[in-house]
Amino acid sequence: MATSSASEGCGGLDAASAALGLRGYRRQPPPGLLARTQDRTPFASFTATSWAAPLLAGVAPGQGGAHTVRWSVRTSRPFSVPVAIPPSAQRVLSAVWRGRRPYGAALEEVTTALARSGLKDKDLRYVVTASPEDIGRPMAALRQLGVPPDDFAVNGTLAGAPRRMRPALGPLLAIEFPVGPPCSAGCTPGCRCGRYLLLAYLHFRTDGDPGRKRAQTPHLFEAVVLESAVLCAVHGIRDPYALPGFAPLTEYLRTLMPPHEREGLRAQRVRLLADRVFTSALLLGVGASPGPRGPAHVMRRLLRQAACELELTGSPPAELGRLVHHADRLVRVPLGFQPLAAADLQTVHREAAAFQRVLADGYPRLALALRRDGTPEERARTLLWLRSVHGVPVSMAMSWCRDRELDVSLTHFAAAELADRERAAPASMSGTAGPPAPEEAGPRLL
Ligand SMILES: [Zn+2]
C-alpha cells in the first residue's frame, strides 16, 4: 500500500498541498490504491466516479474542505505512448469543499497552491466549460483575478475531464500551461496540439439537490491537480518520462534499444516500457498480481505490454523481471516506498514465462491461418481472433505479418474490431451478458 511516508515528501505537489491546508482544507491521509468495488476500473483513478468520495466522507455536511495527495492509476492506452501523454500512474492533489465557495476564492486558492509548486500566475491559462446560465460567474471571477482575455478560452467540452465533473452540473475549468510554440494562429488554451499541459480540473457543482431550483452559487467545489503535468511545467518539458524522477530508468531503457532503430520509434518504446514497468512495480507493491480478471488483469496487461515491447526490440521477454526490478530501484524506492519483495519479482518472471508460451503457441497458429487468409481485412480478423482467444498482442502478430511481407494496417484492425463490437452489441442491449468491460476481459490483452 502507498504508505503516507511514500506519498509525502517527494516534492511537486507537497508544497501545493500545504498551501491548501493554510486555507482551511483539512488534510486527510491518502486512501488506498484499490478502487471501491462499484467502480469500473479496479484501481483508484482521478477520473473514476468515486474518486472524491473518501474526501467527502470526512467533511461535515454543512461546510468545510479536505485535501490529500494520492496515487492515481489509469491504464487504457493500448498501442503507443505519445510525448505529452500523462503516465499511467501519477500522484494527484485532490481537494473538495462542501458548501458555498465563491469562484474567485476557489480559483485563487488553487493558483496559490500551483505557485507554491513553482508555477507563476502569469504562465497559467484557463479553459472554461459551462451551460449558458452558468458561464458568466467563472468568467467574471477570472477577470477579477486579473487574467488577461487572451489567457482564457471558452470551450464546449474538455477532453479527458473526469465524467463526474459534467458541465451540466456546474462550471468546469481547466488550468493549463503552454510549453513550446503555438501550432497555428488559432492555438489558444484548450488546443489539443500538445502545447498545453493540463495541470488541473476545477468543478463547481451548482445544480443543487434533485427537484430543487438550480442553485445560484456553488455548493460543492472539487479540484484535482496532476503532479506529472505540474512537474513538466516546472521543468518546461512535455515528456513526463524525461522528468528527473524517471530519467535514471529511461536512460537504462535506452541502452536496451536496438542501435539501428530510428530515434522516434526508440523514444516511443522507451516511454512505453518506462510507463508499464513503473506502474507494474507500483501495483505489485500494493499486492496486485497478474491474473485473468479485475485488478489482476490490469497487472497482466501491463506486464505483457512491456514483455511484448521487449520481444519487438529483440530482447527476450525474460528480461522483464530485471526491468521491473530497475523500475523499483530507480523510480519507486526513491519515492519513499520499501523495495519490492523477491516474491514479487518471481511473480514477474512467471508471467514472462507464461507470455513466452503464448507467443510460442501463437506463431504457428498465425502461420496456419495466413495460408488461407488472402486479403488485409481477413488477416485483420485473424489478428483479432489471435488476440481475443489466444492472448497474442496485436503489435506482435503485426510484426510477424511484416516479417512475412504481409500487409495488415491498424486501420484494418480497427475496422475488424469495430465490426466485432457491433456484432456483440445487440446481446448486451437485450440485457444478456455482453462483452466484458475492457479492464475485466479474459484473454483480450492488448
Ligand atoms: Zn495548438
Short account of what is shown:
The chain is α+β, with helices and mostly antiparallel strands and 446 residues long. The chain has helices at residues 4-7, 13-22, 53-57, 103-116, 136-144, 227-235, 247-256, 263-285, 294-312, 320-332, 342-370, 376-390, 394-403, 410-429; strands spanning 25-27, 64-73, 89-98, 125-129, 152-154, 172-178, 196-205, 220-226.
Ordered list of secondary-structure elements with their pairings:
Layout: H1 4-7, H2 13-22, E1 25-27, H3 53-57, E2 64-73, E3 89-98, H4 103-116, E4 125-129, H5 136-144, E5 152-154, E6 172-178, E7 196-205, E8 220-226, H6 227-235, H7 247-256, H8 263-285, H9 294-312, H10 320-332, H11 342-370, H12 376-390, H13 394-403, H14 410-429
Parallel strand pairs: 1-2, 4-5
Antiparallel strand pairs: 2-3, 3-8, 4-6, 6-7, 7-8
Helix pairs in contact: 2-4, 7-8, 7-10, 8-9, 8-10, 9-11, 10-11, 11-12, 12-14
Bound molecules: zinc ion (ZN).
Residues 182-183, 187, 191, 193, 195 line the site of zinc ion.
